[in-house]
Structure formats: structure tokens, C-alpha cells
Amino acid sequence: QVQLVESGGGSVQSGDSLRLACAASGRSFNNNSLAWFRQAPGKEREFVASHSWSGGNTRYANSVKGRFTISRDSAKTMLYLQMNSLKPEDTAVYFCASTIFALATSPRDYQYWGQGTQVTVSS
Q: In 3-state terms, what secondary structure has residue 10?
């Protein structure tokens, strides 16, 4: 079993920054990718960024490329999402997720999910 717990959400102004964190526990993640997804009210859950747990490969959605950075700590227990130059359209609940499929971008390919953390960006 895998446990994922997000933190770091909040309410900010347009142009501000936030850093989300995801604490991962429960099993070895050496063969898993971890990712951030987000879901705005009335919209489908969408891919934001993913990180291979070993090797350091990353992938980003075009909408966040150049503004968001996904990373993990050396102990391989934490995943982060540094979000800069935030825009109102970044407002959503952000989820951390784990998959056995390397750098997958579809939510259907993810087996474990955290409970989500709210990010609200006002103009």
C-alpha cells in the first residue's frame, strides 16, 4: 500500500509563488513515477508534472512549463512542486499521485492518490 499526503496549498495573489509538498510512504518507490495533477471546479483532472523516482526524469504540461518545477528530496520520501508566477487559471485542488508507468500523463494510469490540497490564485 502507498500513502501520499499533500501540503502547502493556500490563497495567493497573481504572480506569487507557492511550494507544494507530498510525503510518500508505504513501499519502495524505486520503480514508480510520482506526479502532480490538478482539478478545477467543473473540470476534469489534468496532468501538471511528473518525476521518475529514480533517474531524475521529469515531464511538464505545456501550461506550466517554465513556471513550475517538480523535484524530490535525496531521501526519496518527498515530492515537491515549486509554483512561480501563479495565475488565476492555476486555481485548483492539486493532487499527488503514484504510478508504475514511467512518466504517465493520464490520471487513469495512476494507482495511488493523495487527498489533495487547495490552491487559490486571485487577480
A: strand
